[in-house]
Amino acid sequence: MRRFARVALLCLGCGVCSLLYGLSQLALSLEQEPGGSGGRERQARDPATPGARWQAGSAGRGEAGTGRYDYMKTHPSEKMHLAVVACGERLEETVTMLRSAIIFSIKPLHFHIFAEDQLHESFKDILDEFPYEGKVNYTLYPITFPSESAAEWKKLFKPCASQRLFLPLILKNVDSLLYVDTDILFLRPIDDIWSFLGKFNSTQIAAMAPEHEEPRIGWYNRFARHPYYGVTGINSGVMLMNMTRIRRKYFKNDMTPVRLQWGEILMPLLKKYKLNITWGDQDLLNIMFFHNPESLYVFPCQWNYRPDHCIYGSNCKAAEEEGIFILHGNRGVYHDDKQPTFRAVYEAIKNYSFGDDLVHSLLQPLELELQKTTHTYCGRVYKVFIKQLTKSIRDLYARRSKGR
Predict the structure, then answer these.
(1) 37-41, 93-97, 296-300, 384-388 — which is least confidently predicted?
(2) Mean pLDDT for the chain?
(3) What is the spatial distance between Cα 134 and Cα 98, in angstroms, rounded to a whole number?
(4) CB burial class (10 A; 0-12, 13-18, 19+) of residue 126?
(5) pLDDT recorded at residue 404
(6) What one-character-per-residue DSSP string does 226-291 give?
(7) What pLDDT was estimated at residue 218?
(8) How do strand 326-328 and strand 184-186 relate by DSSP bridges?
């Protein structure tokens, strides 16, 4: 009997210990802040929480997390967050970019669209007609700058361009974010660039591509009157950010021996360098990462392929080998005849109808158009424009076949 009593007491003790351990783990999980590591997203209670000093303090129709512009809710840990800033005549271009993101991406997407008030209804009308297939929702926001310096930020470079600098301060409940310019086209799933978050080391907070591959045609190394990152500077048209790390980091700088946080360093940088910068907020980012090079992850040029990579001869070797992953049509090349290769890709994606066969309705007509551009430098390497696109379409159909 004593032996049975001892066994019973031992089992009871183990049960009590297990219960106490479970309760302690539950309490710990409730106390810890979600996110903070590369690629893991925080629970978004409020998609945008601008501070009291911000101009136009609400977050559009997605204010306070009510999500009147949010559709097809998905589990936060599965979502990838994409941000874009659209002003002026950029509505069509932005929508085309979003279309390219939807076509190939695998995991659910949340679009954070910062736009002038007069564009909100147009965005809503267009995006509500997209066949999201359960994988996309979006929130519209007004353009917002710190109220005490709004005028200075608005006139920096192009209207609204510097909005991207304030995304970590506005989207307080978003852990990681991919920011892109409106003139971006995805030729590969966003999932693949999103995966770079998992490759960040413990000091890296953001990822961008070099401004140039070839120093002989580089702008920063030949003309810049301010510090810049690396040999040829960085381009901010495609910027992957661990925003939790950005908000927590104290940055080295050349204004004070004291390290400053993101929200503290922006205005002093502008005041010091505003007479020396040409490309606005991109120049400020170059200055910041010049002083904090350990904080930047640099991804290859095929993730931000621009006209400079082919108009002086092909100088993005990675794209020659693997194709273009993200096309960046800066300098308005989607809308003029200067670079018909870029314009052909833009028109093909803009005119593609969701649900149509991608090979016959997108890839084959595009290749025919690209073959007409071989009289240009970029047209001579037109196959790099469809190499990855062909693979993305093949992979998409393979996934669909497995899902049946």
Answers:
(1) 37-41
(2) 84
(3) 15
(4) middle
(5) 63
(6) S--STTT-EEEEEEEEEHHHHHH--B--SS-SS-B-HHHHHHHHHHHHTTT-SSTHHHHHHHHHHH
(7) 85
(8) antiparallel
d(CA 245, CA 250): 10
332-339: list long-range contacts, CB under 8 Å, 24+ apart.
Answer: 332/183, 333/307, 334/93, 334/183, 339/307, 339/311, 339/376, 339/378
Q: Are strands 206-210 and 234-242 parallel, antiparallel or unpaired?
A: antiparallel
Average pLDDT (362-376) is 97
Residue showing tokens 């998609």: 47
- Element holding 154 (H helix, E strand): helix 150-154
Other beta carbons less than 10 A from residue 223's beta carbon: 8
Cα separation, 240 vs 170, whole angstroms: 16
Angle between helices 340-351 and 364-371 (to 10 degrees): 160
Number of neighbouring beta carbons within 10 Å of residue 222 = 11
**CA angle (132 as vertex; 401, 86 as ends), nearest 5:** 130
In terms of C-beta density within 10 A (0-12 exposed, 13-18 middle, 19 or more buried), how is residue 400 classed?
exposed
Instruction: Give the C-alpha distances (Å, rounded to integers) separating 214 from 153, 221, 222, 233, 308.
Output: 31, 10, 12, 11, 9
> How many whole angstroms from its chain centre is CA 282?
15
Q: What is the DSSP letter of 363?
A: I
Query: Closest Cα partner for 180 from 101, 115, 237?
Result: 237
Q: Provide the pLDDT for residue 219.
A: 85
| Residue 19 pLDDT exceeds 80 | no
Average pLDDT over residues 146-175: 83
What type of residue sits at position 289? F
At 216 the three-state DSSP class reads: helix
First to last CA, the chain: 61
Identify any residues that bridge with 110 across adjacent strands, giving them in sequence order: 81, 137
**pLDDT tens column, 71-94:** 333 334 479 999 999 999 999 999
Distance CA 337, CA 119 (A): 27
| pLDDT at res. 137 | 93
